[in-house]
Amino acid sequence: MHIPSLKNQVSPEEWALRVDLAACYRLVAMYGMSDLIFTHISAKLPHSVSGDAPQFLINPYGLMFDEITASSLIKIDMAGNQITPSEFSVNRAGFVIHSTIHEARHDAACVLHTHSRAGVAVSAQKAGLLPISQQATLMMSSLSYHDYEGLAVHDDERDRLKADMGESNYLILRNHGLLTVGKTVPDTFLAMYFLECACQIQISAQAGGEITQVSQKVLDGVSTAVKLQQSNNVSAGALAWPALLRRLDRLNPGYAE
To answer: What is the DSSP letter of 110?
Structure first.
């Protein structure tokens, strides 16, 4: 499969976003969070972050996440219509959730949705994510839930999805999967990485003995602790991203083509 490079046909800002998003797709696959060709990661183009007519990059429907490249990503509008030509199509129905979140959250430059086994397992539990690990405590204050209404193809679900998401950065879609948002692709990936880890830890812990939950007093202090940890105003995603790209360069190069 050969896809011509778009590096010299788009702006430097768009190309940088394409490279980061392609890397994100491959990292999701590398860390076992992909679901064959299904689910999506969408990123808003830089010039449209605060514009009236936002445009997005999304995966070509039919490619595995570990073979996505910067040039293979397809540019679409808010309705999921393709703007740039491609030999591949876009799963418009799959963009319903993403477009809803992007519309409601102008700060969400990236939206990442997964159907991982651990994520779906926790989403099916009545109590949802439990505060039983350090990973889980990092997201409890910014975590929301949305009840399952079947395949997300009906417009009347959009308002309820927006209301349930609110200002949270983590969303558990009941009986469905996980979703994270962020101001950058690296931040959104790291948010999903920790949410997925928290779900995996919970499923493993529930297979053992009695579980100890973190106290509310500790949970109340997490936000302050995180701010102290990031006093240099550099996000954890930005800190981890170069190392993650180096790992990709070793194990699955080619995403920046």
So the answer is: E
